[in-house]
Amino acid sequence: MTSHKQSGDIQQDEEFEPRPVKAEGVLPLKAAGIESLKEANPEVMSPHRNIFRWFARRPTAATRLAILSSVLPKETSNDELLKLMGVGPRRNLDSSIEDYVVEKYATKDSRSGSVTDHFGYDYPHRTVPDEDRLSRFQEELEDFWGGSLPTVLDPTAGGGTIPLEAARYGLPTISNELNPVAWLLNKTILDFAQDVGSLEDELDQWMAEIESYVVSQLSDFFPKKGGVAPNHYFRAYRISCPSCGEPVPITNTWWFNRRRGIAVRPKYDDDDLRYEIVNVPDEVPKSEFDPGEGTVSGGDIECPHCGVVTERDDAVKIFNQGEFEYEVCAVRYEADIGKTEYYPADESEREAISRAKEKIESDLRLATLLDQDRYIGYYDRSAPYGIKQWRDIFSPRQLLSHATYLEAFESIKPDIKEEYEQKKAESILTLLSFIPIKLVDRNTRLVPIDASYGCANQMLGNNNFSFKWHFAETNMMAGTYSYQTEAENVIKNYEEVVSYLSHLDENKTTIRQGDAADLPLDDSSIEAVVIDPPYGDNLMYAEISDAFYVWFREYLGDVFPEPFSPQSTNKEDEAVENPVIVSETEDSSTSELARARYENKMKDIFAESHRVLEEGGVLTIYFTDKEVQAWDSLTMSIIEAGFLITATHTITSEMPQRIGVKEDASADSTLLLTCRKPASSPDERTPTLWSDIREETRQVARENATELLSGDYNFTKTDMIISSFGPTLRVFTEAYPVVDKHDEVVRPKQALEEARKAVTEVLVERELEDSLDEVDSLSKWYVLSWLVYGREDIPYDEARQLGLGVGVQIDEIKNETKIWGKSRDTLLLKGQDYRVRDYSALETGEKRRKRAYPIDPRDTSFVNDIDAVHAALNVLKTKGGDFAWNWIQDRGLHEHPEFKKTIKSLIQVLPENHDDYELLINLVSGETGELLDIETETVMNQESKQSNDKTTLDDF
């Protein structure tokens, strides 16, 4: 018989006493959250994020909180911590700094000046402690850490926010990053910016030479109109109709600039296809031409001549076989900022396109540039359309444009290497390469047109390679998203980063490119690891960064041969949940194998962090993923690496409009998990029975949710569930290993499911007038889904977990009840109009498929309370109040408390703009309301609805 320990009885060396750090005490979470939201505005965010795009944007305040609280003594006051973070005015306050920040936040809407004026201090990322305070800070750390400053390691540095902020405080810092593109950004902001410093004059000189070369080579390929150069193009495709042979333009919309009503209209004249610019509806009524109706719908192409539809599969074959032509439909000219004109493409434009194609095909180097196969990932949506090589993502003129900037760069590279010492030459060449490579995101066949402004959007706006039925082309020599505008952006932001590090006398930062699971560091040599790890399948960093990597390889392959020698980025060592690099087996699907592989990789990374940390060393982890499965994997990785979770904190720190995350995958708050390297390993601990700690996991989750609800935090209900995971996992890891009564290992996800149930119970108790105890499971799940998320589209996995918590297997009831649908990874909650057969139509004999409408309002009883409610709403809508009164009376529903509870709860949780909300209000009003005897004043109280609101940039 295996012996079991009681909860909390940790097997550990009693003589070992790790230094208590601030992260294991109370933190100023409200102030940090408010500062994080303030910095979410792209116009005020830290400049290092704008030198080159990376795919995670952690705000400075949250980053500083994680770093400083990991190294400062526990007794450090919150006011002192906030001052070090750059939060709070310089003057003395009557209250705490956090109270001051909260009060300023509460009065932001009535401010007269800017956000900075209102709060009375600058954004934290623009400041560091003055010389005296920074000196005192470092002296305190030296005393606390035994005579030397603690070293901070970020094993997965990404965009470099963590190491940059650690370096700004003069801490010895190690930045490690596997991806060469992100590594190059880290090298720029952490090495070049400090050791080389300002490069504005040098960059201006060499950029002028590049521009001069490009203009001489490219200008004729971008014909001007009235002396004004074009800056954006509406590009489409043309095929021959497989049925009638006529030319068919391919697009799913003809809008060019919707705000100005500017659209492109095709003109068919015999075999000729031309285009014109029209203004809808001022010049052309929408009844005559609707720009929203292109030739493509749902992937099917309809011929405007014969009306025959080419289905998606056949369309894919056409594109895959290259049986199409590139069209240039319309051109945008920008004479000055805010002054734009739109014209159809004329003959000179078509000639330029033809000459660009001829040049690409006749020039040997251009004909083979980027002719390497693309890595086709799980989320790739362009390969089926023939985009198999990297050169395929460009139309001929786009490829010519990018190639010409590369030629210009190569022409000056030898001179730069000869004129400057090595590191300065490397820094100049790196920054010069950033400029045109950033424009790859704005000038490919995969770039959508931003119809709100009539310009190019971003190729990787959704962080995948999706095919576009029409696309934007950018003239890189003129206007918006030109070489000049990007150059100004790169220089400005680089120079700001230089100023951010100018107060440091010594560069104590090491930048490494390599696997986070294999660090060239001595055992027990690091005091603190602060990491923002990759989250499962949230982002395929290597896959999407290849679009930039292949160009960096062309530009800098001889400058940095080691990181840029492979054909593409390293996918094998990347810590992501990538189903493409695993093979399905009889026992496991690719998704299951990818999850296991990710978990093992994260375990290796945490194990390496465990190795290099000194005994009692601190590991602080950012985590923002919502999915229980991701938390389960992360926690198992932490546990198996040998760590104990000693503290958890939740802050609202994510950008409301983050770039590039899988839909609904990331939470709007960040959980900081602080862990310790204990004296004992998990293998030396005695197992704990799950039954001994199950109630404790529920209790800490309830207490956490109650505290957040009572504390005026800026959290959504989803955030509250996520925040409960932290204290729940702390209980679980302290008790680990955990086993059930059969001695089977219990994984963290069981504790997290208990936490989800517990928080949901608290939300019901606090926000619904009645409990849902007697309501059937399906109805309860439906109400809770609206309560927690407040919208009809919610992450499928979360909805499934919520269902398990109340005893509903949502997959098993989907077809039978039609209460939800699915769009990719998103679940869509359905209302009565989708579920109930129309009563009036039934009376007239109109046929509506029973399978599509599972509820028949003529039935005298219903399986679920929500079915009865939806049927009642349909009857009220189609037959009126009198009929509905009799309908309810005949079925005795007015005497069913569960029926009435479901109605009351739905009124409290449905958004007011939901179609069913007004019907519910009408149902509890008038004669039907008297029959049901539901107190409308209580159920219509809007406080619970307002609690769903959360701050976004619009509030500032």
List its salient traits.
5-stranded antiparallel sheet; about 950 residues; Rossmann fold; alpha+beta; globular; disordered C terminus; 7-stranded mixed sheet; about 15% strand; 34 helices
Verbal overview:
With 956 residues, the protein is an alpha+beta fold. The protein has three domains: 22-178 and 514-540 and 576-678, Vaccinia Virus protein VP39 (Rossmann fold), CATH 3.40.50; 222-394 and 443-481, no CATH class; 768-955, no CATH class. Helices cover 43% and strands 14% of the residues. It contains 34 helices and 25 strands. Strands 16-2-1-17-18-20-19 form a seven-stranded mixed sheet, with helices on both faces. Strands 3, 4, 11, 12 and 15 form a five-stranded antiparallel sheet that branches. A hairpin with a 2-residue loop joins strand 11 and strand 12. Helix 20 crosses helix 22, helix 28 (865-879) packs across helix 30 (897-909) and helix 29 packs parallel to helix 32. Mean pLDDT is 89; it is low at 5-14, 654-667 and 941-956.
